[in-house]
Design goal:
The protein is mainly β and about 140 residues long. The chain is built from no helices and 10 strands. The strands form 3 sheets. Strands 1, 4, 5, 6, 7 and 10 form a 6-stranded antiparallel sheet that branches. A two-stranded antiparallel sheet has the order 2-9. It has a two-stranded antiparallel ribbon with strand order 3-8. The protein is globular, with a radius of gyration of 13 Å. Keywords: Calcium, Disulfide bond, Lectin, Metal-binding. InterPro entries: BG_Antigen-Binding_Lectin (IPR051941), FTP1 (IPR006585), Galactose-bd-like_sf (IPR008979). This is Fucolectin tachylectin-4 pentraxin-1 domain-containing protein.
């Protein structure tokens, strides 16, 4: 998991329990109050990003959704990968779009390899909270 202990940032931070870094702590605990999820405020176009510190050929990303409420908030989120920080990295190549992830579940998105240092999760076009309980990034098979 290339994202583990990578450097994470997000468009805003909801409260003291919800730092961006929580989504790459290696813990898939999906209960908000456990302190292992990242969570933005109700931003317009909320985003979260991990810096892998090196460029990799990324082939899949796993996202663990919040388990205690609000599963639908992740719907429509885009996974974007690349080397640019233009628009906070949200203009990088689109790897996949989340249709839905059930409460507390982990879903893996596989795609043709995309070279990049930054992996963004981005909800375009609406005001919403972005909650991620774990994001795992993999290169190769």
């Amino acid at each position: 998991n290339l994202a583990f202990r990578g450097t994470a940032v997000q468009s805003s931070t909801y409260d003291h329990l919800t730092a961006a870094q929580n989504a790459v702590d290696g813990n898939r605990n999906s209960i908000y109050t456990s302190g292992s999820c990242s969570h933005t405020k109700a931003d317009r176009n909320p985003w979260w990003r991990v810096d892998l510190l090196t460029v990799y050929k990324i082939t899949r990303v796993s996202i663990t959704n919040r388990g205690d409420c609000c599963a639908e908030r992740i719907n429509g989120a885009q996974i974007r990968i690349g080397n640019s920080l233009e628009n906070n990295g949200n203009n990088n190549q689109l790897a996949a779009t989340v249709v839905s992830i059930p409460l507390g579940e982990t879903q893996t998105f596989k795609f043709h390899p995309i070279k990049g240092r930054y992996v963004n999760i981005f909800i375009p076009g609406r005001n919403d909270y972005l909650t991620l309980c774990e994001v795992e990034v993999f290169a190769g098979e």
